[in-house]
Design a protein that fits this description.
Mean pLDDT: 92
Number of domains: 1
Distance between the termini: 24 Å
Helix content: 40-55%
Strand order of the largest sheet: 1-2
CATH class: Mainly Alpha
CATH topology: Arc Repressor Mutant, subunit A
CATH superfamily: Winged helix-like DNA-binding domain superfamily/Winged helix DNA-binding domain
Shape: globular
Strand content: 5-15%
Order of helices and strands: HEEHHH
Number of strands: 2
CATH architecture: Orthogonal Bundle
Length: 71
């Protein structure tokens, strides 16, 4: 899965806010839930249009991006 498989940025969807592909769920919402001590399962329960695979892939990709910045 590459980034374009995970995220859509389209001015016609929530004004261009990055969302999980095929949904209207902003990517930022996942991070906000996790920052507020919700579990991934709780996020997925609230946003059933986001697949577990997509959420985990996004988190994995975010981790790689952050760690590569420190090198």
């Amino acid at each position: 899965m590459n980034s374009s498989d995970l995220i859509t940025v389209d001015s016609g969807i929530l004004g261009g806010t990055p969302v999980f592909r095929g949904t209207r769920v902003p990517v930022q919402t996942l991070f906000q839930y996790l920052e507020s001590n919700y579990t991934l399962d709780e996020f997925l329960e609230c946003f059933p249009t986001v697949t577990r695979e997509a959420a985990i892939a996004l988190l994995d990709r975010s981790e790689v991006a952050l760690l590569s910045m420190t090198r």
